[in-house]
Design a protein that fits this description.
18 strands, GMP Synthetase, Chain A, domain 3, single chain, 12 helices, Rossmann fold, alpha/beta, five-stranded mixed beta sheet, 3 domains
């Protein structure tokens, strides 16, 4: 079976702990703290690879972990950073949070490489905690914990044109005639079990990518048969070719077939059903001089703005006219690639986990308020305060978690200082 979905567990690297040690050298009787910082944990990175066309590599191995950072050492030695893990996926792969189904990233278009989980920040060694009143600090900061997540990988093929129709209407034959693709062809249903891609080259007119979507059946939008497995591959296409058996060699009514497929498309995603369509009425070589089935199709659909092209995929009849018209539709359709926008941001989601924190007024320094706890450590470890987006998230975090309310209850005034581990800022409403 074509591997176009996989559920995997990913984990970033834990940050290495800071080290506690003291300088011990001959002739240096009172050596100070010299514990080094822990190394950064490795990131989990996804990368689009044009050489891949399935998610098969993720069918049998389901757990992927980046390397942890090493603990800091004596003599201010910094622990080694953990190695990142790079997971390669086919172009067009969508990464979703498994439980909610929300999109984390779409590995399409310009998005070739994306960090999904950040490794934990290394902890500070005891050298950083020496003060005038605490010259022998016997503690160091632990490394930030790793992030972990279960994600669903979902491949949606990238093609300009989707070729749809009931089984055994000749889609694979058409694809083999007009592109360089070599799909399996046989006279029985569901010969095609994978979406086949091919490039159409038009003389003087450029070209486009066409995908033969395996035969749909009624109830596909509800998951009947292999419906959901194949319908997702239509989502990126900009034009649809409906292929029907105009000769009704299997006793099917081509008009009913088109309405049935449009019904499934609409049920799956109404926006898809509204994209430009064209009808390829295949097997006219079997019809001979009988034009009545073609006239019926034209009478039914051309008033709706859907052109009907009589073709024979086997004999090559009518293919040129069909393909040049499809190119016209593509040129008139929006040119930007269909890329799914992110809906889930792991770093932001994970810092809202219900971990404890404290808000206290300093007893030693006037006008200083200290906010600490695992929740604060996690937030600071995964937030880049140097970026505009990171700073905006920081402000939102303070408000949404109730930290600002608690600071006001504690009596904070404008101009007072807030300290969160290594971060300090003045408070203003």
């Amino acid at each position: 079976m074509f591997a176009d979905r996989a559920k995997i567990y990913i984990r970033s690297g834990k940050g290495g702990d800071g080290h506690v040690s003291f300088r011990r050298e001959l002739y240096v009787p009172n050596g100070g703290p010299d514990g080094g910082d822990g190394g950064r944990g490795g990131d989990v990175i996804f990368e689009g690879d044009e050489g891949l066309n399935t998610l098969y590599d993720y069918r049998h191995r389901r757990k992927f972990k980046a390397e942890d950072g090493e603990e800091g050492g004596k003599r201010r030695c910094h622990g080694k950073d953990g190695s990142d893990i790079i997971l390669k996926v086919p172009e067009g792969t969508i990464i979703r949070e498994a439980e909610s189904g929300k999109v984390i990233a779409d590995m399409s278009g310009e998005n070739r490489r994306q960090t999904i989980l950040k490794g934990g920040r290394g902890g500070a060694g005891n050298q950083h905690f020496a003060t005038s009143t605490m010259q022998v600090p016997k503690y160091a900061q632990p490394g930030q914990p790793a992030q972990e997540l279960e994600v669903l990988l979902e491949l949606k093929v990238i093609a300009d044109v989707g070729l749809v129709g009931f089984p055994n209407v000749g889609k694979s034959t058409l694809l083999s005639r007009v592109t360089n693709a070599q799909p399996k062809i046989a006279n029985y249903h569901f010969t095609t079990l994978t979406p086949n891609l091919g490039v159409v080259d038009l003389e003087g007119g450029g070209g486009f990518v066409i995908a033969d979507i395996p035969g749909l059946i009624e109830g596909a939008s509800e998951g009947v048969g292999l419906g959901h497995e194949f319908l997702r591959h239509i989502e990126r296409t900009r034009v649809l070719i409906h292929m029907v058996d105009a000769a009704s060699t299997e006793g099917r009514d081509p008009i009913e077939d088109i309405y049935a497929i449009n019904k499934e498309l609409k049920a799956y995603n109404e926006e898809i059903a509204g994209r430009p369509q064209v009808i390829a009425a295949n097997k006219v070589d079997v019809l001979g001089e009988d034009t009545e089935p073609i006239e019926r199709l034209k009478k039914e659909f051309e008033p709706q703005g859907i052109r009907v092209f009589p073709i024979s995929a086997v004999a090559g009849q009518g293919l040129k006219e069909l393909l040049y018209y499809v190119k016209e539709l593509l040129d008139a359709a929006p040119q930007e690639a269909i890329v799914f926008e992110p809906e889930y941001f792991p770093g932001e989601e994970l810092v809202y986990v219900n971990l404890p924190y404290t808000v206290v007024k300093s007893e030693e320094e006037e006008g200083v308020y200290i906010v600490e706890g695992p929740r604060i450590e996690k937030m600071l470890g995964y937030t880049n305060l140097d970026s505009e987006k990171g700073f905006a998230f920081f402000q939102k975090f303070l408000k949404d978690t109730g930290i600002l309310d608690e600071l006001e209850k504690a009596g904070i005034q404008e101009g007072d200082t807030v300290r969160m581990y290594g971060l300090a800022f003045d408070y203003y409403r």
